[in-house]
Amino acid sequence: MFRKLRSFLADVSGNFAITIAVAAPAVVGVAGLAVDYTTLFNHRKSLQEVADGAALAATRELMIAGTGKSQVQSIAESFAEAHLPDLSADGSLAVTTKVDEKTNKVTVDLAYTWYPMFAHLLDKSATPIRSEAVAKLAGSGLTCVIGMMEPQLLAKASIHLDNNAKIVADGCGVHSNSKDHFGLRVDSSASISASSVCSAGGYLKSSKAKISPAPLSDCPKIQDPLLQRMPPVVKDCRAEDLVIEENTTLKPGTYCGGITIRGNAKVTLDEGVFVIKDGPLIVTDSASLTGDNASFFLTGKGSIFEFHPDTTIDLSAMETGGLAGLLFYEDRDVPHSFKFNPILPKLTPKDVRIHKISSNNARNLIGTLYLKNSILLINAEAPVADASAYTALVVGRLWLQEGPTLHLNADYTETEVPVPGGLIGSAPVLIK
Fold this sequence. Notes:
With about 425 residues, the protein is α/β, with parallel strands linked by helices. It has five helices and 26 strands.
């Protein structure tokens, strides 16, 4: 018996099986944890991507639907269900939204309840898997300055303020579409005050310049917000190369070769659309141009406007019709170029379109100036547009020289001139 017992104890032929039997639970556990955490990682990544997208979609809806929380919730749910159909099919995906009406901010929380093999025993946060995203409108949801110009070899900024120039736009946003590092440029002691300041690229600010709030970089570019607005039909010429030197009332129509108003002439516009074709609109000397419910369409070569220092300009755009809300509408097909050197403005080539507001009495400009193929140069010594209920600019390049103060009010209820629909909700939506 003793020999048999010793022989049994010395036998190692079954050790492997015993070892496997003892180790099997640990091996299975490690493998199960590996599967659990791989699943956890993949689901978290997918949930975060969808949470970001749902927050962006819901915030855009907030711009359209005001502060309708149920609509915002519905948009977030629909987005999540469309992009995570497998997770939402069994009803284990919960979508929760919160709307901050004061800051135009939407928070989207996604919670996916699943049943891991072992991970929940070691980590209670393993289920549900949660992802949160916060998106907000840059500013109030309306952008009143959009610089559309792409960066050029020498001209990088689509919004450029020199010297003591100021933009005051407390009720709306300022946005540069230039992707260059200096897409927004504020020199010397210039300043911008707005509800938001965004640049698709970066910005250059001198040590004495001020931008409030601090500008955001790498903002999404704003596509042409007025792309769907159709130009008016250009009819036969009412007049050619018209020069006005005495008081008169001007009727709507096509003015070929442009219009020059000079001397002490006071020109009043009848209601309607004024087409300036193949020539400029110039108001010079101490002349004045006034008109309510009147809009300009600029088409053909040389169709720019210039308002000289001693003139008076008082205009408001049409309240109805195809150009409703558009004070100046520049033909998208006009020949143009942005190849110029901002350091040597006097050497600017002739094919660069420059509209100039030098008037020291251009306080009332109600409506939108849609000049995407041009430079809008403002160098007045007195405030511009400060008496307007609202003024919006969609321009190739906004250039404020010397020390003008451009006021862009947002008192939309104070006028019957509508804000073009494309500008409402044009502010970029940002993931926080």
